[in-house]
Write a structure and sequence with these properties.
This protein has 194 residues and is mainly beta. It has one domain: Beta Barrel (Porin), CATH 2.40.160.20. Helix content is 10%, strand content 68%.
Length: 194
């Protein structure tokens, strides 16, 4: 189901971009470079044959870089993020996000969007000898406010939900990596390319 949804989101982005190429979408566009930082949590469920399901919530900080383009109403980003948490050797995401912006005032807009991408992680549970490696797709949705500090700089405050739904089983012990919710702040530089 999730893989089908990823394909639908990616197909929609590609079709929308080709349709917008025929319109005036690119008449007033800006290129974007953003730096993001925030706090996230991740639900991890442990199951084995003896013990009942045990869910642990990990709190982690994250930092990211995103590049993209913006028209009057839409933004598209390619992003990479690194997450730092106990029991994880690493956790990174690489993705594509598309956002629609509601221009409420000349000083700010509200945005909401959807995204998809790849999550990679190595998880070393306490008391286990083996590390667990995950490489799986995710889908996401976000909402927030984008404040125009100047013509070239924006500050965005947002919340992102990420659905991972990945599992790893070793020696009849299964870990399921489920949902992640992030609160984040981004500084975005806008510029025109000739």
């Amino acid at each position: 189901m999730r893989k089908k949804l990823n394909k639908i989101i990616l197909s929609t982005c590609l079709i929308a971009s080709s349709l917008m190429a025929e319109s005036s979408f690119f008449d007033d566009t800006s290129s974007l470079i953003g730096v993001e930082g925030g706090l996230s949590n991740l639900d991890v469920e442990r199951n084995d044959a003896v013990n009942p399901a045990n869910i642990k919530k990990y709190n982690m900080g994250h930092a990211g870089l995103k590049i993209g383009a913006q028209s009057n109403d839409f933004r598209v980003f390619l992003s990479g993020r690194y997450y730092n948490a106990d029991d994880f050797d690493y956790m990174t995401t690489y993705g594509l996000d598309i956002q629609y912006m509601l221009n409420i005032t000349s000083a700010a807009n509200i945005y909401f969007g959807a995204g998809t991408g790849l999550v990679k992680m190595r998880f070393a549970p306490a008391g286990e000898l083996n590390s667990r490696t995950i490489s799986d797709s995710y889908i996401s949705g976000d909402i927030g406010v984008n404040v125009h500090l100047s013509k070239s700089f924006d500050l965005e405050l947002g919340i992102r939900y990420m659905g991972i739904d990945a599992t790893n089983t070793i020696d009849s012990v299964t870990y399921t990596f489920d949902n992640s919710v992030s609160g984040y702040v981004s500084a975005i530089y806008k510029f025109k390319m000739d």
